[in-house]
Specification:
single chain, about 210 residues, alpha/beta, Purple Acid Phosphatase, chain A, domain 2, six-stranded mixed beta sheet, 11 strands, about 25% strand, globular
């Protein structure tokens, strides 16, 4: 399966046009947005309409600029878009687990509670892509420090999850200074695809991880 992921376009229609062009070029099986499609929900429905016209199915998370209830309801009006938060989607032999919103805390009790549920414990984590708006703590995705002095502002809960369960890939956003950055936690790849987005071949990533 090939996916195209992007994040934090914040209402920028030029960025969405670029993503659409790349999606039409590469023809992925799935498109993913890890949040902050809008600027505090301004013209949110119109932005979702643009995303709905990309072509492939889309998984949408909310960021800190969207309220969960509103974007969930709006996504329900578009046939190509699936809103995902505190939920799991099985598709083509792969698992997509999502936890959206937030971005300003280092601990997320709701996520910790999810991981205690039987259905989450029993996920095939080697074939799981974890989607989050907040980046994992202690990586290049959450470092907003200057020069040689690191300053990490990400989710310690997410880092703990990755170390324990070892998903194949983590896609996050939120930190604009860290757009298009990549890192690893153990053998798990963690990336912020930025507003321009990036294409991922999950089968290739799985083969490289073995």
């Amino acid at each position: 399966m090939r996916i195209y992921a992007f994040t934090d376009t914040h209402g920028n229609t030029k960025s969405l046009a670029h993503v659409k062009q790349e999606v039409r070029k590469h023809k992925p099986d799935l498109v993913i947005c890890t949040g902050d499609l809008s600027v505090f929900e301004h013209e949110l429905k119109a932005l979702l309409s643009r995303v709905n016209m990309f072509g492939p199915p889309v998984v949408m998370l909310h960021g800190n600029h969207e309220e969960e209830d509103r974007i969930r309801a709006l996504c329900g009006q578009f046939p190509k878009i699936t809103f995902l938060h505190k939920e799991v989607l099985q598709l083509g032999g792969w698992t997509f687990a999502a936890f959206g919103g937030g971005g300003f805390d280092d601990h997320y009790p709701e996520l910790e509670a999810l991981l205690k549920r039987k259905e989450w414990k029993e996920l095939d984590w080697e074939h799981t892509i974890f989607l989050s708006h907040a980046p994992p703590h202690g990586t290049s995705l959450d470092d907003v420090g200057e020069l040689e002095e690191a300053w990490h502002v990400g989710s310690k809960t997410l880092t703990k999850l990755v170390k324990k369960h070892k998903p194949l890939l983590v896609l996050a956003g939120h930190i604009h200074e860290c757009f298009e950055t990549s890192d690893t936690i153990g053998k798990t790849i963690v990336e912020n695809p930025g507003p321009k987005g990036k294409l991922y071949d999950l089968k290739v990533l799985r083969q490289k991880k073995k």
